[in-house]
Amino acid sequence: MFGANGVLLDVDLTTRTTTRVAVDPDDLRRFGGGSGLACALMLRERDPATIDPLGPENTMYFIVGTLVGTGAPATPKLLVSAKSPLTGIWGEAAGGGSFPALLKNCGIDGLIVRGVASGPVYFAVDEDGLTIHDADDLWGVDTFDTHDLLIERHGKRGRACSIGPAGERGVRFASIMIDGEDARAAGRCGMGTVMGSKNLKAIYASGRTKPELFDGPALKASIKEHRDGILAATKGLTDWSTAGGVEAVEYHGDLPVKNWQLGSWKEGAQKIAAQAFMGRYPTKHGTCNLCPIRCHKRVDIEPPEQDRKPAYSHGPEYETLAGFGSNLLIDRPEDIIVGNQICNRLGMDTISAAGVVGFAFEMYERGLITDEDTAGLPLVWGSGEALTTLLTRIGNRDGALATRLGEGSRKAAAAFGGEAYKYTIEVKGLDLPYHDPRAHVSMAPNYATSSRGACHLDSLSYFIGRGVPAPDLGYTEPFKDHESSKEMAALCYTAQNYQAMFNPLGLCKFLFLGRAGPTLLTHWLHLATGIELDRDGFMETGERILQLKRMYSVRCGVSKKDDTLPHRLLNEAQPDGMAAGVLPDLDLMLTELYRLRGWDADGLPTPETIERFGLQEFALNG
After folding, report:
1. Mean pLDDT of 477-488
2. pLDDT beyond 70 at 83
3. Looking at domain 230-426, which CATH architecture does it have?
4. pTM here?
5. Where exactly are the structural domains of the chain?
6. Contacts of 313 by beta carbon, 8 Å cutoff, 6+ apart
């Protein structure tokens, strides 16, 4: 097998045994590797309806993207998959950095982790195999210090992924942090929570043996040919990371403000954008494995007096700036940077963390959470102290309110009861990323039907709506009316199919902004692995993966009743700004998207659709 190793290590934590498992090359062709391959393997093993997300039967898959380590640019991703403890359906998270390539260079494509260890453990992996080590002394240690300790024990040539106290203590949106203080995150769906339930603290990898390529010289030549174009199209990311786009997002009405209640926040956006704070504090530029875009930023600020640790941070990305900034009316970037640092060290997804904090702020404003609940902490809009204190409490499950919020927005609202659900912004239990479907309405059907719940990365259609050209997908000009629901189901359908194949290959989404379309990616995939696909075959494989993940969640009870948006986004238009007065016509778009997908009126793949994609073995009666 070219470009991949064709082997997974299957680790049973209960018995502390490891088995080498061959990857079927046909599975790699049909499901693209990564999370696509993981979904097929998971469905073959067990009906997900019978799985307790925090039980020993919830097997985890850590599978490196197929193009990782081949030299293709912006291909750093590890895909972590399991049943989500946050949503109860299909769960996956992707993280970059150096660790994924080092894991693949151990001569494997990833790990299958099953069972539960009798006490805290970590793995060390190299070309000779995997060893299991006791981790009692690491339990309770934050992710940065855990990484440093593993480097000290096993050598500087390796890197690690790990969980922090949030994952250990069962916060349902705990992340897996990668590369220590460089702070890449496999953030969404609570994959760190599953890892904690297994008593698995960390994985250290130090491989150096790269897989053989099908045609390495031709791949290298093609990469060189396209490198300058990719860099030119992504220069803003090189200069500022995604944090440089805050003002542009606000201009389009796409920036959530005050728990998604308002529209315009121009002055605040100017204050929290990267252009405002990166010139004020020392900033270092870095990169994931072999990526020329170099979007990684580290920002060093003076820590608050009460904080013993310096607030150097993976300089917050757009999602964190929006979630901790505009969403909470916090316009001091220092508060956001400290909040980001807290989440990275404790191991929490900043998107979901910001979602539950925004929910709590609004509940406090409405008198549904009181000072008695908060131990005297005023949860007032714009308060950096309220943000950082509440994040610390949530990550440590410190107090009844923090513990409730650590269950996630949907479960927290259900516990409060009444109309609390109106103040949560989630789909299927997964908090929305900070792009508003009232500004780019193609995101409405995407959020409603995304494989893991609300996920902007399942389509990135707002980029196309905003004017990013994607000629290989059939879009060369901005939509004249990107707030209209007409034509948006077709855009969602195409963009989702593309991204569904994009993800398992281990590609960073910034390559999409670098104008890489399916034709170029199929060429690179062929030169790396020998797999032959044309542009249409790439898109068809993406849809096959998407259909498979839908079938997984259907087994968990998902249907049309779950394909919806938060109450606020369906019923309350923004009062001002570029998207003022706009509400998506979700029913119109879902009807068309279901037709394009070959789903019935309940949102279930029809027998004909299942047969068309060769997925009969995964059907409910299969």
Report:
1. 74
2. yes
3. Orthogonal Bundle (1.10)
4. 0.96
5. 7-205, 230-426, 443-618
6. 183, 298, 299, 301, 337, 338, 340, 341, 344
